[in-house]
């Protein structure tokens, strides 16, 4: 400090001097992992005696002291712990001055909790088993695939019985019921598409039962959804075998007619078996995306036979003595239950909600490009075509046949019953081929959740993907079990109204309650009122329709014929 004191004493007396402490900014360096960079550490305070005064000294005139003492806080600094803290002035002069980078407590590879990258990473959280299961094995779907699958599952043989409901409801209530059901199920379909992705947890609910269990709890979710979902998958496959096999027999008779040279044509059971074998062969395709082409063929044939049925029926004109008065039989109680059973038939015509989450699971998804956008585009296109098929089919079929449609029949059976001699044989054969091809295609789509369940049981137990040969065995077993049920219980079609009531909550009620539970709309808001109202109304209608379906089955009777399909 002697040099500083000599310099201060030699200053002229005319300058104003204020006593203060000299703050000298020392320069030092150390070896750091980031290389040699300039650094300006905290200043070291040098206490002066009261008799000595000083002026602020610029770095150009001040000399660096030989030794500088650092504060205790820097002495234990983690960023300085790898190199010496004290250096001599000569050695410091020869070294380039450097500034250490500030190293925070958060590692560089961890992004902030609210960053877009973190949210995008959360959106990709998947169950590791999903890569082994047929529904989620491939996630390269798009809006076109979604439209194919939705159209194939949305239009089916169940649409052919809509004119039967009109015979009980009449023109006004039939159209009103069909319109309300269409708008209602389209709204709940929109809710399902939005609920597929949970942005809070980053999870994708790739199956209807997963979303039900996550929303209502494990026990209540399975109790309320497992049986209806099982019927809508396995039960539909059984019904498709019955319809496909019966239509194949009808096609054979149409093409051969009375001139058939085969003295022993195939029986109904044998036609069931032929249909099942074809369906099992096509079921060997590995995953849901791989059957997109089959779904396209099924969708085109569904649109084809729906359009052909109502155009041919309308072109042939109304039947003689046709009546449009609603059928009223029995007591007042019987009429009420008949009305409710007709609404159950309409409700049963709108199915496919059990496959919406599975179809959406085949698409890639991220926060920037969520899967709900292309999925909803595909659904809108598909349901535009569905409306263009269902409404003309129901209205045109009822106009052409009126109350003469068989009670347990459909537009297809009415066409063959009343116009088999009037319509060209090639047209009837083409309609039959469309029905058969659509049934085979729909079998693949409705059977996929059951294939997924069987393979999920294996992968959960064995912790590995299901081998191809075991997958083939699983699907063959499922196909022939459905064949056995179709042969043993050929009268399943008589329970259409009852089954519609059982499956109604899956389509009309549960999505509303799921939306309330997951999205939690503001209490007493429009969304809150709409979803509570539709959900409660759907559950009430389900109970009433189940009771009505049971009453109608008991009152009218069902021709029970185990192992005797007609």
TrEMBL record:
<feature type="transmembrane region" description="Helical">
    <location>
        <begin position="171"/>
        <end position="193"/>
    </location>
</feature>
<keyword id="KW-0813">Transport</keyword>
<feature type="transmembrane region" description="Helical">
    <location>
        <begin position="427"/>
        <end position="447"/>
    </location>
</feature>
<feature type="transmembrane region" description="Helical">
    <location>
        <begin position="528"/>
        <end position="554"/>
    </location>
</feature>
<keyword id="KW-0812">Transmembrane</keyword>
<keyword id="KW-0029">Amino-acid transport</keyword>
<dbReference type="GO" id="GO:0006865">
    <property type="term" value="P:amino acid transport"/>
</dbReference>
<feature type="transmembrane region" description="Helical">
    <location>
        <begin position="332"/>
        <end position="350"/>
    </location>
</feature>
<feature type="transmembrane region" description="Helical">
    <location>
        <begin position="495"/>
        <end position="516"/>
    </location>
</feature>
<feature type="transmembrane region" description="Helical">
    <location>
        <begin position="381"/>
        <end position="401"/>
    </location>
</feature>
<feature type="transmembrane region" description="Helical">
    <location>
        <begin position="268"/>
        <end position="285"/>
    </location>
</feature>
<dbReference type="InterPro" id="IPR013057">
    <property type="entry name" value="AA_transpt_TM"/>
</dbReference>
<feature type="domain" description="Amino acid transporter transmembrane">
    <location>
        <begin position="140"/>
        <end position="554"/>
    </location>
</feature>
<feature type="transmembrane region" description="Helical">
    <location>
        <begin position="229"/>
        <end position="248"/>
    </location>
</feature>
<keyword id="KW-1133">Transmembrane helix</keyword>
<dbReference type="GO" id="GO:0016020">
    <property type="term" value="C:membrane"/>
</dbReference>
<protein>
    <recommendedName>
        <fullName>Amino acid transporter transmembrane domain-containing protein</fullName>
    </recommendedName>
</protein>
<keyword id="KW-0472">Membrane</keyword>
<feature type="transmembrane region" description="Helical">
    <location>
        <begin position="468"/>
        <end position="489"/>
    </location>
</feature>
<feature type="transmembrane region" description="Helical">
    <location>
        <begin position="292"/>
        <end position="312"/>
    </location>
</feature>
<dbReference type="Pfam" id="PF01490">
    <property type="entry name" value="Aa_trans"/>
</dbReference>
<feature type="transmembrane region" description="Helical">
    <location>
        <begin position="143"/>
        <end position="165"/>
    </location>
</feature>
């Amino acid at each position: 400090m002697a040099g500083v004191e000599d310099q201060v004493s030699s200053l002229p007396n005319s300058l104003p001097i204020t006593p203060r402490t000299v703050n000298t900014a020392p320069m030092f360096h150390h070896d750091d992992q980031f290389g040699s960079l300039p650094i300006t550490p905290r200043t070291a305070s040098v206490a002066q005696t009261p008799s000595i005064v000083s002026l602020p000294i610029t770095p150009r005139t001040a000399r660096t002291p030989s030794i500088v003492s650092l504060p205790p806080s820097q002495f234990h600094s983690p960023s300085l712990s790898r190199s010496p803290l004290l250096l001599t002035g000569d050695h410091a002069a020869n070294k380039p001055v450097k500034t250490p980078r500030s190293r925070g407590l958060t590692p560089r590879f961890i992004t902030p909790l609210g960053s877009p990258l973190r949210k995008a990473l959360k959106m990709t959280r998947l169950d590791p088993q999903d890569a082994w299961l047929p529904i989620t094995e491939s996630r390269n779907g798009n809006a076109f695939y979604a439209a194919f699958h939705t159209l194939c599952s949305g239009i089916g043989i169940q649409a052919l019985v809509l004119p039967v409901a009109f015979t009980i409801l009449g023109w006004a209530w039939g159209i009103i019921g069909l319109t309300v059901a269409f708008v209602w199920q389209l709204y709940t379909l929109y809710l399902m598409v939005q609920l597929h992705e949970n942005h809070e947890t980053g999870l994708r609910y790739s199956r209807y039962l997963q979303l039900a269990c996550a929303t209502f709890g494990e026990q209540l979710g399975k109790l309320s959804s497992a049986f209806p979902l099982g019927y809508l998958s396995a039960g539909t496959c059984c019904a498709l075998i019955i319809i496909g096999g019966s239509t194949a027999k009808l096609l054979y008779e149409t093409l051969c007619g009375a001139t058939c040279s085969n003295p022993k044509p195939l029986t109904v059971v044998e036609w069931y078996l032929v249909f099942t074998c074809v369906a099992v062969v096509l079921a060997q395709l590995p995953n849901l995306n791989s059957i997109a082409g089959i779904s396209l063929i099924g969708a085109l044939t569904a649109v084809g036979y729906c359009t052909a049925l109502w155009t041919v029926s309308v072109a042939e004109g109304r039947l003689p003595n046709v009546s449009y008065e609603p059928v009223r039989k029995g007591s007042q109680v019987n009429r009420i239950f008949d009305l409710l059973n007709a609404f159950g038939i309409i409700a049963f015509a709108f199915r496919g909600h059990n496959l919406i989450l599975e179809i959406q699971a085949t698409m890639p998804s991220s926060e920037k490009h969520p899967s709900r956008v292309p999925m909803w585009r595909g659904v809108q296109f598909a349901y535009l075509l569905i409306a263009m098929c269902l409404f003309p089919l129901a209205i045109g079929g009822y106009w052409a046949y009126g109350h003469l449609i068989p009670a347990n029949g459909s537009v297809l059976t009415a066409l063959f019953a009343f116009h088999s001699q009037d319509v060209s044989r090639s047209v009837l054969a083409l309609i039959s081929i469309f029905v058969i091809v659509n049934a085979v295609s729909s079998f693949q789509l409705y059977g996929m959740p059951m294939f997924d369940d069987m393979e999920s049981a294996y992968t959960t137990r064995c912790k590995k993907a299901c081998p191809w040969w075991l997958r083939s065995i699983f699907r063959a077993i499922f196909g022939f079990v459905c064949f056995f049920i179709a042969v043993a219980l050929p009268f399943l079609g008589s329970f259409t109204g009852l089954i519609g009531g059982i499956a109604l909550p899956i389509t009309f009620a549960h999505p509303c309650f799921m939306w309330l539970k997951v999205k939690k709309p503001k209490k007493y808001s429009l969304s809150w009122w709409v979803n509570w109202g539709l959900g409660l109304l759907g559950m009430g209608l389900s109970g009433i329709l189940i009771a009505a379906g049971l009453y109608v089955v008991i009152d009218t009777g069902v021709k029970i014929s185990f192992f005797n399909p007609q």
